[in-house]
Amino acid sequence: MRLPIFPETSHPTIQALIQKSDPDLVNLYQRYPEMGQYFAAIFCRYAQVIYTLTATATRSPVQSDYLFVRTWEYIFNELRSLDLRAIQLSLQSWLINIAALTINQISPPPIEDIQYALPETSPVFWCYLNQTLNLLPGNLRLVTILSQTFRWSHIRIAAYLQAEGEVIAPEDVQKLIDQAYARIAASLPQDIREIYLK
C-alpha cells in the first residue's frame, strides 16, 4: 500500500505548530473555531495512521479514500467537544478508536457513486467546505451542489427550480452560483484559504 502525500504538511502555518502537544492543538481547535490551522495540524500529524487503517478496510482505493474522508469528517465534528482528560485516552488512541468505529459503521457506496477524490481535495478542506456549504441559504446551496457535484447545466437547474416553485431564468443561475461562491469564500477561515487556495 502506498501512502498519500499531504502537501499541507509542509505549509509554514502547519510547520509553526509542529512543537505543540496534542492536548494543546485540541484546546486551540476548540477555543478558536474560526481558525482551521489547528485541525489541519492534527490531521497532518495523524493522517498517515488513519489512512493506513481505512485503506486496509476496503478493496478499492476509491472506497478507501471515501472512508478516509468520512472518518476525518466525523473527527472534525467530535473534536469540538472532546475532553481528553475525561476519556483518559491519548489523542492518537482516540483517533484510532474513531477510525475503527467509522470502519465498522460506514459501508462505502459503490465506486461509481463516490464523488470524492483524495488527490483533488484534502479531508481538511473538505470538512471546512462542507461546514461552509451548510451555512448557505437553501437555494444557493442547492444550485451550487447541482452545478458542481452533479454538473447540471444552467437550463436544467432553472427547470428544476421552476418545478419546485421558484421562477428563475437559466441566465440568472450563474448569478446565484456567483453569490454562493462569494459567500463560501467569505465563510472559509482565512488560514484555510491560505493553506489550500493559494
Textual characterization of the structure:
This protein has 198 residues and is mostly helical. 65% of the residues lie in helices and 0% in strands. The chain is built from eleven helices and no strands. The protein has helices at residues 12-15, 22-31, 37-55, 61-78, 84-87, 91-105, 123-135, 138-148, 154-163, 170-187, 190-196. α9 (154-163) crosses α10 (170-187). The chain is globular and about 55 Å long.
Summarize this entry quickly.
The protein has eleven helices and no strands.
Annotation field: number of helices: 11
Order of helices and strands: HHHHHHHHHHH
Task: Tell me the distance between the termini.
Answer: 30 Å
* Average pLDDT taken over every residue: 95
Helix content: 55-70%
Annotation, overall tally of beta strands: 0
Keywords:
0% strand, 198 residues, mainly alpha, globular, single chain
Secondary-structure blueprint of this entry?
Elements: H1 12-15, H2 22-31, H3 37-55, H4 61-78, H5 84-87, H6 91-105, H7 123-135, H8 138-148, H9 154-163, H10 170-187, H11 190-196
Helix pairs in contact: 2-3, 3-4, 3-6, 4-6, 4-7, 8-10, 9-10
